[in-house]
Each structure stands twice: as structure tokens, then as C-alpha cells.
């Protein structure tokens, strides 16, 4: 049982877990949206809780990483997450949903890695938490974990060389996964869990301080970036670039599509990196290295090819329309255009 490993401090570290939310609601059963401005929350002044919520939300939406909140009581940190969910849900803004979710997932991911590094029972805790959010049973092995092959294929990073099955150690239908790789999977699963929870929440009727907070987070959202490109891009690439410009957290496979396509049509790596700056989880150092690797300037020196249309269809990235004609690869877009 997960409860065997978790205490109040852990609930604050992983606030999206069902156990964490259940704990918070039991601690303050009389809390309603109308009372947030006026009553004590878990015994704390509502102003302090709202200040913590504001710090959590504005920082997370603006930077893509929520602060750790180690300077406030665990109960305050936990309830600030719940109030944040209410405020974010009210916006009905998919970009804010995405940025909030990845910011919270990255925050919890950092705690997960700390568990492994500092806690003698860290591996047991990490396994229990990962199994809770994913439904996957793991076996500890060496310094990592063994994950059933079907789940590895589901949660692994698509399009990245080190995650390809040919480069993995497979034993009895299980794939060996390092701690850092499991943490990456945890982040993606957590992010999706938060987004789904937001979508399934009824829209709240908020006022007072919460309404002011909503305006602040809407201002904190990155503004769409303007890029000038005179050519006509294939629909699959064009769609993902527009999503990226709006700050949507597009999947790794879509980022790989953009980077390989722009590299192969001659874009400068620095310009490609700038395009990714509005991604909720943008890291300039990592993004630059990956783009340089795709271009052949780093790593093996091999320039990566754009995924075929067949591959994009399998990855649910294909957005073929009548302008695509009979192309087999996005790089062929426009070359076989019928004459009219």
C-alpha cells in the first residue's frame, strides 16, 4: 500500500496523487470557494495560503517549473495546489492547463530524484509512487528497475535514439530502466494526469482574490512568438509549430518532426532552438544539444531524416489534406503538386 510510504510531507511533494487530495479534503471539510477569502484553511490564515498559491501559480506558468514551497507548511503547500487547480480550471485555457501541469510534474520529478539520492528507502518509495500513477508493476534490478515491455513501449520517449528498443537491455519480457529514465516517464504521466483532472472538473464560479489571481496567471502566460517563413510547410509540421508557438506542450515525437524537418530544409540550429522557447518544459542547454545532434553537428555526426508519412500516421501526427498529393515524406511536400 502506498500509504505505508507517504506522510504529510510526501503529500505536499506529490499533491496530484489521490491520497494527497483525499488527505487535504479530510483536513478541511468545510472549505468552499466562497470561503477561501474569509476562513482559516487547515488552521492557517487565508492570506498566507493565497500568497503561497499565487507564488506557485505565477512562477509555474511563467517559467514552466513550480517552486518547491519548502518555506511553507506542508498543509499550506498541499492546499495551495488544490486552489491552483480551481483557478487554472476557471481559465478554460488549454495552454495554461498544459503549462501548469508540466510545471507541477517537473516539481514532483525533482523530489522523486531526491528520494533515490538521499533516502535509504528511496527506491521503494519511487517504485510505489510510480506504480500508483501508472498502474505498472516494477521489479528492482541493479541500480534501476525492470518494466514490462508493453508499458515500456507506451511510456518511452519516441524518436530518441537511447530509448529505442534495440539500444535497451531486455530480460524475460522486461526492459531495464534507469532511475533518471523512470523519473522522465513519471513526469510525463503526472502531467497527463493533472491535465485530465482539470478537464474533468466542473468549471467553478469564482470571485474575490481568486478572480484577481486568474488575471495574474493569464498575464504570466507566454505570448505567442512571431516567426517569418516565406515557404509553405506541410500540414503536419505547420500544425505542430503553431501549437508550439502558442505554448502547448507538444509530445517529443512532434518536436522531433519539427527539428528534423527544419534542419533538412536548411534552418539554422539557433533559430530552431528559439522556436522551442515557448515549450512549457524548455531547457536551452538540452534543446540546443538535441537540435545539434539532429543536424549531425553533435554526437554520431549523422544527420537525422524526417519521419515518413507512414511513421507519422502511426504516431498520430499526420494531418494529411488535399495539398499533400501522394507524398511519402513531409520533405516532398509541394514537389508533386498537380498542375491546374
Strand order of the largest sheet: 1-2-4-3
Unreliable stretches (pLDDT < 50, length at least 5) are 336-340
Question: Could you say which overall geometry the principal axes of the C-alpha atoms support?
Answer: globular
> Quick check: average pLDDT?
85
Draw up the topology in text:
Blueprint: H1 8-13, H2 18-27, H3 46-63, H4 74-91, H5 94-118, H6 122-134, E1 139-141, E2 144-148, H7 149-155, E3 170-171, E4 174-177, H8 179-200, H9 209-220, H10 235-245, H11 252-264, H12 269-275, H13 284-295, H14 309-314
Antiparallel strand pairs: 1-2, 2-4, 3-4
Provide a quick synopsis of the model:
By secondary structure, the chain is mostly helical. It contains 14 helices and 4 strands.
Tell me about this structure.
- By secondary structure, this protein is mainly alpha-helical.
- The chain has a 4-stranded antiparallel sheet.
- The protein has helices at residues 8-13, 18-27, 46-63, 74-91, 94-118, 122-134, 149-155, 179-200, 209-220, 235-245, 252-264, 269-275, 284-295, 309-314, and strands spanning 139-141, 144-148, 170-171, 174-177.
- Helix 3 (46-63) packs across helix 5 (94-118), helix 3 (46-63) packs parallel to helix 9 (209-220) and helix 5 (94-118) runs antiparallel to helix 8.
Give me some keywords for this one.
340 residues, four-stranded antiparallel β-sheet, 14 helices, disordered C terminus
